[in-house]
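Notes to self, Acyl-CoA carboxylase subunit epsilon:
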Amino acid sequence: MTAEPFLEVVRGAPDDVELAALTAVVAALAAAGAPAGQRPRRSAWADRARPAPAGLPHGPDAWRWSALPR
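result:
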């Protein structure tokens, strides 16, 4: 039975101490997981509850003024 490697170095030549530190950090992050009771944050762009902008500018330079704060 051959197990897949946990980490694989694809560039460089780390020494034993660097590999041990990297392995410890990755293992700690994997064990911690996501905090209980919290859902991942959704970006404002993907949020369907976010209201659409009202009153977009019209006219020949509308594209230019659409990025400016109101």
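- The radius of gyration is 24 Å.
- The mean pLDDT is 79.
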